[in-house]
Amino acid sequence: MSTLGNVVAAEHKFASKSEMDLIKAVQGGDKQAYHKLYQQYIAQVYGLCYRLTADKSLAEDAAQEVFIQLWRKIGNYQGDSKFSTWLHTVTSNITISYLRKQRGWLYRMMNFEDSPAINELAEESSSTVDIESYIVRLPERARLVFVLHAIEGYRHEEIAIMTNMAVGSSKAQFHRAKQLLQEWMGYE
């Protein structure tokens, strides 16, 4: 059977099964099931990675790392919560960890404050820039906390654990992000 035929057969094989059956197949080492799970969640994972990293290349790398770790650690998923909820937490944790590892390299390669893309964005009129563009401009820690709290719905206590910062620091970073966004958007 051709590769395309295998993919079509695999998709048919799992089309009628529940998500938990698919996950159990992945836990058993079924690569076709894993591919199906990947296809089902890649957009969601990449979107969260992008909101956390504010960089397409880093988001792609972080999303790849999420799926590598997912293959290795899917056995940890026991079905106590929705898989999408579990995957969301895993994605957040892996992306934050990935950012910590990349920080030194990134700051050696470029100074974010002097980035032409950031300066160009600052010169644009607020009517042509959407909220995502403003979020990208936030300093890393403020952006992480803002995305996790305001967009993803995590509590400051959870964010503090995920980012290894004090709860008060999480609240301060969120306040800083809100102030910057309001200033940039002309809502002072």
TrEMBL record:
One GO process term, biological-process aspect: DNA-templated transcription initiation
Domain RNA polymerase sigma factor 70 region 4 type: residue ranges: 131-181
KW Transcription regulation (keyword) present: yes
KW Transcription regulation (keyword) present: yes
SUPFAM superfamilies for the chain: Sigma2 domain of RNA polymerase sigma factors, Sigma3 and sigma4 domains of RNA polymerase sigma factors
Source species, domain of life: Bacteria
UniProt xrefs under InterPro entries: RNA_pol_sigma-70-like (IPR039425), RNA_pol_sigma-70_dom (IPR014284), RNA_pol_sigma70_r2 (IPR007627), RNA_pol_sigma70_r4_t2 (IPR013249), RNA_pol_sigma_r2 (IPR013325), RNA_pol_sigma_r3/r4-like (IPR013324), WH-like_DNA-bd_sf (IPR036388)
Record domain RNA polymerase sigma-70 region: where: 37-103
Pfam family, any one: Sigma70_r4_2
Keywords per UniProt: Sigma factor, Transcription, Transcription regulation
MF (Gene Ontology): DNA binding; sigma factor activity
Family statement drawn from the similarity comment of this UniProt entry: Belongs to the sigma-70 factor family. ECF subfamily.
Protein's name in the database: RNA polymerase subunit sigma-70
Annotated source species: Paraglaciecola hydrolytica
Organism placement in taxonomy: Bacteria, Pseudomonadati, Pseudomonadota, Gammaproteobacteria, Alteromonadales
